[in-house]
Specification:
Blueprint (H helix, E strand, L loop, with lengths): L7 H15 L1 H42 L7 H53 L4 H9 L4 H20 L2 H27 L1 H15 L2 H42 L5 H11 L6 H14 L3 H31 L3 H44 L8 H9 L1
Helix pairs in contact: 2-3, 2-6, 3-4, 3-9, 8-9, 8-11, 8-12, 9-10, 10-11, 12-13
Length: 386
């Protein structure tokens, strides 16, 4: 009887696979709708993870050293972590936005002068060729008309994209509502995070054996540890690089020191190429004031970037995450191609966790085969990952 039993599970899987392939566009559409609907909750979970890095040690401090606040340790820690997070965002906006607007206004004023100086330089360079020199000197650009056309083009483009003022209001309202939902969901997760742990263990006890539950828990803990190390390491590295850049610019008397230092530090969160993105923008802004100072800034940034990449980053991020440099490069290239900046940022901790788990798996297999001593399991895995 068992020999002729119909494999219903296999049949259902095959039917589901065929339906998935035949209705692939519709499935993608539904996945997109579900993703857009769940995006505020996903972002809220990410925000809760980041805030928990601030909240967790603060809550332990209140419970250990402030008996009067022991019962209110969780609400106090959540409130303080939110204020710290929002304060950092506000400070970044205050430092960057005003000076960015000022530099754009200065750029608009100085472009005609730079073009005129370039015309004089080129005409002197080609003075032995009168026809070329006359062509260069005859160039006359109406900058006011050009800027008006650019402004009008951008305005019409924005209006064409939004179609009406109602679309603007709808977009702003939707973004505000999503931000509020994200914040509320993050607070709810932080306030009752033990509930989610209990739900996880209840589900595991219902559907998994103890051995499989332990393995799954170990995998999740490894991923959590990898993300924690990466976020803390990247933020620390960005703070150090931003401070070095700001202080160095003050020493060399370069303009926009607080803004460019902050911009370089923030963009440095993007692995490997982030500081160069911020540095490129900063060099452009310094160029609007003085081309020679822009050259000084570019040389200075290259020096501190090399110091940060070869001395600071390996000690702060590399050792904590435990992913070899060749794999970091591969992850950044592949992650950037698949998901842009998010792929670069998220790819490293994911790859680090996978690398550590695979290393531990190989160590266990080598121990079982008698190729390694049995007492060196976890330590050997960690050393191989480093």
């Amino acid at each position: 009887m068992n020999k002729h039993r119909i494999p219903w599970t296999l049949i259902l899987v095959l039917v589901a696979a065929v339906l998935f392939i035949l209705n692939f566009p519709a499935v993608l559409k539904w996945i997109g709708l579900l993703w857009n609907a769940a995006l505020p909750l996903i972002l809220g979970g990410c925000l809760a993870f980041v805030l928990n890095l601030i909240m967790d040690p603060m809550e332990h401090w209140f419970r250990r050293y402030s008996p009067a606040f022991e019962k209110k340790a969780r609400p106090l820690a959540i409130t303080i972590s939110l204020f710290i997070f929002l304060g950092i965002i506000t400070l970044l906006c205050i430092l960057v936005l005003p000076q960015l607007v000022e530099s754009i206004q200065l750029l608009v004023k100085t472009i005609p002068g730079y073009v005129k100086d370039l015309q004089v330089f080129l005409s002197n360079l080609f003075k032995d060729h009168p026809q070329i020199a006359d062509s260069i000197n005859s160039l006359n650009i109406d900058w006011n008309s050009m800027f008006q056309k650019i402004t009008g083009f951008l305005s019409s483009g924005v209006q064409g994209a939004l179609n009406s003022a109602f679309s603007v209001v709808t977009s702003i309202t939707s973004a505000t509502i999503n931000s509020i939902i994200m914040l509320i969901f993050a607070i709810y997760i932080l306030a009752d995070k033990e509930r989610f742990v209990r739900i996880y263990h209840r589900l595991c006890s219902l559907y998994l054996t103890k051995e499989k539950e332990a393995r799954l828990t170990h995998i999740l803990v490894t991923f959590d540890s990898s993300f924690r190390s990466f976020v803390i390491g990247q933020c620390t590295d960005a703070l150090i690089l931003g401070t070095m850049c700001t202080v160095g610019m003050w020493i060399f008397r370069l303009p926009y020191a607080p803004m460019i230092g902050t911009l370089v530090g923030v963009t440095n969160i993007i692995p490997m190429i982030g500081a160069f993105i911020g540095g490129g923008i900063g060099c452009f802004l310094v160029f609007t004031v003085s081309p020679m100072k822009a050259l000084v800034f570019l040389i200075f940034l290259c020096v501190i970037q090399q110091f940060e990449s070869n001395v600071i980053y390996p000690r702060i991020v590399g050792n904590s995450v435990g992913l070899p440099g060749i794999f970091v490069t591969m992850v950044i290239v592949i992650g950037g191609a698949l998901a842009g900046v998010a792929g670069m940022v998220m790819g490293i901790p994911i790859a680090a966790a996978v690398y550590k788990l695979v290393s531990q798996y190989f160590v266990r297999k080598e121990i079982e085969a008698g190729l390694r001593p049995s007492g060196a399991g976890e330590d050997m895995a960690d050393s191989s990952a480093a």
